From TrEMBL:
InterPro entries, sorted: EmrE
Cytoplasm as UniProt keyword: no
Organism phylogeny: Bacteria, Bacillati, Bacillota, Bacilli, Bacillales
Gene: yjlA
Source species, domain of life: Bacteria
This protein's record includes keyword Transmembrane: yes
Record-given protein name: Multidrug resistance efflux transporter family protein
Transmembrane segments: 31-50, 70-90, 96-116, 136-152, 198-222, 228-248
Keywords of the record: Membrane, Transmembrane, Transmembrane helix
């Protein structure tokens, strides 16, 4: 239950990303600065937290061992995740981006065969290649239907090109985030806590963010003061609070792909949090009845996915102990 609660708290703070990114886009800010400033601003608070917890030396020691893996999976897990999300914010409201983002639940399930999980047998603990959780995946398609309903209504107001510029970047991000996160858990192998892992991945991704910033400087100029402030808020609420909570939740269930999928499913609540945030903060109109129906299906799919994952794991444990 604790990993699920941590996942829900992470979803609340992650919603700030979609609301504030939309606010920056509406005020004329570039997605380039929305993406790069978040991770640049994340470094100082994370450094202070990890230093206070006396974890800097062990973090740098672990990063030195496999620097190439840190650079690779941080690029995939952070850069290929967040830059496309910020790009997509130019083509849809925050609640729509958050809703479409929930396809990551399906993406995460499809990635399971790339990893090994630890199971208990009569001969002790063994590591086996993960298998796609088909029952959970079936529940995930309810989420996909909800996303389709939201996107179809939105697409009627956009050209096919703009609709694709909203969907395709999110699809890329939906695979990149769970892949980078899970691979870094394998690399760390329990040697680092969530704070250290987030800081390490942030530092490892900085070269890419600096390059993107240079590109932004020569193409769109410097960011406005408002965008700098809002990016700082995203860095604290989403980059630090949400990411650490989510990584802590996934750390609690590492090695168990079904429970990991259930934790990742809690992120569908970002849809409701984002919709409420846009109405309150941006005075945006309430989503239409069709969009609300889509949101409801996303939430129902998340709940069913979690229940199936937990039920399957309980049956698996009973079989192993029999």
């Amino acid at each position: 239950m604790r990993p699920i609660l941590l996942g829900i708290c992470a979803a609340f703070f992650f919603a700030f990303t979609f609301v504030l990114n939309r606010a920056m886009e509406l005020s004329g800010g570039s997605w380039i600065w929305s993406a790069s400033l978040r991770y640049i601003f994340m470094v100082p608070p994370l450094l202070l937290i990890v230093a206070w917890r006396k974890g800097l030396l062990s973090l740098f020691r672990e990063m030195k061992k496999e620097l190439h893996n840190w650079l690779l999976w941080s690029f995939i897990g952070f850069v290929l995740f967040y830059a496309p999300l910020c790009f997509a914010s130019a083509y849809g409201p925050g609640w729509l981006i958050a809703g479409t983002w929930q396809i990551t639940i399906i993406s995460g399930s499809l990635l399971v065969p790339l990893f090994y999980e630890t199971i208990q047998t009569e001969h002790g603990l063994i590591r086996v290649r993960g298998q796609i959780p088909y029952k959970g995946l079936a529940m995930s398609f309810i989420i996909l239907i909800g996303i389709a309903i939201m996107q179809l209504e939105h697409a009627t107001k956009l050209s096919v090109k703009d609709a694709m510029l909203c969907v395709i970047p999110i699809l890329i991000a939906s695979f990149a985030y769970p892949l980078g996160n899970r691979k870094m858990m394998e690399v760390c192998n329990g040697q680092l806590d969530a704070y250290q892992r987030v800081l390490g991945m942030t530092i490892a991704s900085l070269p890419f963010w600096f390059l993107l910033s240079l590109f932004g400087l020569f193409t769109v100029g410097l960011p406005s003061k408002g965008q700098v402030v809002q990016s700082g808020l995203v860095a604290i609420f989403s980059g630090v609070f949400a990411t650490v909570l989510f990584f802590a939740a996934t750390d609690l269930v590492k090695g168990n792909m079904k429970k990991l999928g259930a934790v990742e499913a809690t992120q569908s609540l970002e849809v409701l949090f984002s919709a409420a945030g846009e109405v309150i903060v941006l005075s945006a109109p309430l989503p239409s009845a069709a969009s609300l129906t889509g949101m409801l299906l996303v939430i129902i799919g998340m709940v069913l996915h979690s229940r199936i994952s937990v039920k399957t794991e309980n049956m698996k444990s009973e079989t192993a102990s029999a």
